[in-house]
Write a structure and sequence with these properties.
The protein is of the alpha+beta class and 375 residues long. The chain has seven helices and 22 strands. The strands form seven sheets. The chain has a six-stranded antiparallel barrel with strand order 3-4-5-11-7-6. It has a four-stranded antiparallel beta sheet with strand order 2-12-14-13.
């Protein structure tokens, strides 16, 4: 029995190790884009979400709330609704906070369903942990109330403070009320206009739009045509005129290979580089080296002679040295894939921030065939 158990454990470890290891040589880099469903790269015109905003009051805080006039005024307004009149001087509490409320109302949501609410302090409250949001209306851009929010606030951060030190983790002044808003009014979604539906591309591209129209026409006949890079109009086939939802469900499952523009996105702040699969470069020569400047200060104490009337002083001697490290000249051939480009850049033994500078220089030289996006 022990031998059998040991054999099973060895097989399990071997299988897990084989699945955990990734061999880049076995991966297929020949394809730039995979096949994706139409529903994953498009949206149906007329079915859109709406942004909701509001202002509320969070109570039940442990002395970490507001002491601003805005909090006092909201407290008085809330108590007035319950028939209690408070004097401004009688409200002295740090157990409540004025917050800004934001939420997204998705399409097809009906009254009675719930949505999440984001809560953010507006005054000088330091922590929302343990607070409860009092019933607050959420309005859209037209000024109408579409949802009402209420419930305990979940905070992902925390803070602690003592007499001489304090510690804060994440952001304790922002939180979330999951499912805390009840939808009171729905937004009409009319996605069929005159027996026609329109698909909006999330990443507009002329080639991708035409491929979507071709894929639909191959299955349902000539019913779709690309209007521009971001819009494809589809006439409902005869059998789907009375069932547009069934058509969208069936059509959304069709797969195409989207086309992407050649882009290189770089973030100089954190050294992130993302290159698209269509990026190409011409043959260039690249010289790369680092200039290191070192500045050092040596302190010397000058002691005057006795009875000279002078005073002791400290003087500094500054030494500056400059060394150039890692200088090299490499001929970079014309690459055909991102994998080749990465291999050549890695041969320079350059760090990500250095590669960003190299890519910028290649772009300035006109050898980078694509758009360089600096974030």
């Amino acid at each position: 029995m022990k031998r059998l158990l040991l054999a099973v454990m060895i097989v399990a470890v071997t299988v897990s190790a084989s699945y955990g290891a990734v061999n880049l040589r076995d991966m297929d880099f020949s394809r730039v884009s995979p096949n994706v469903r139409i529903k994953d790269i498009t949206e149906v015109e007329g079915a859109r979400g709406n942004q909701l905003t509001g202002v509320g009051l969070v109570t039940g805080l442990n002395g970490t709330g507001d002491n601003s006039p805005m909090a006092v005024q909201m407290m008085r307004n809330m108590m007035r609704n319950f028939g209690i009149t408070l004097d401004a001087r009688s409200v002295r509490t740090r157990n409540l906070a004025v917050v800004a409320l934001t939420a997204n109302l998705p399409p097809y949501v009906r009254p009675g369903q719930t949505i999440d609410v984001n809560v953010n302090t507006m005054g000088n409250a330091s922590n929302l942990q343990g607070g409860v949001l009092v019933q607050s209306p959420l309005r859209a851009a037209d000024g109408k109330v579409y949802a009402v929010a209420q419930g305990p606030v979940i905070v992902g951060g925390s803070s602690a403070q003592g007499a001489a030190a304090s510690r804060t983790q994440n952001v304790p002044t922002a939180g979330r009320v999951p499912g805390g808003a009840i939808v009171e009014r729905e937004v009409p979604a009319d996605f069929t206009m005159g027996g026609q539906v329109a698909l909006l591309l999330r990443q507009p591209d002329f080639t991708t739009a035409q491929r979507i129209a071709d894929a639909i026409n191959r299955v349902y006949g000539v019913v779709a045509y690309a209007v521009d890079a971001g819009r494809v109009e589809v006439n409902l086939p005869g059998q789907y005129v009375q069932a547009p939802t069934a058509f969208l469900a069936s059509m959304g499952g069709l797969e195409i290979e989207p086309d992407t523009t050649a882009k290189v996105a770089v973030n100089e702040r954190n050294g992130t580089i993302v290159m698209g699969g269509n990026v190409r470069i011409s043959s260039v020569g690249v010289a790369h080296g680092n200039l290191v400047v070192t500045v050092g200060d040596d302190a010397n104490v000058v002691q005057p002679e006795s009875l000279s009337g002078g005073s002791t002083a400290v003087t500094y001697r500054t030494d500056i040295t400059a060394d150039e490290e890692g200088g090299s000249m490499i001929a970079m051939p014309a690459t055909t894939t991102v994998r080749d480009l990465v291999r050549v850049l890695n041969s320079l033994a350059a760090r990500p921030r250095d590669i960003i500078e190299i890519l910028q220089a290649i772009s300035k030289a006109g050898a980078l065939h694509g758009e360089l996006v600096v974030m």
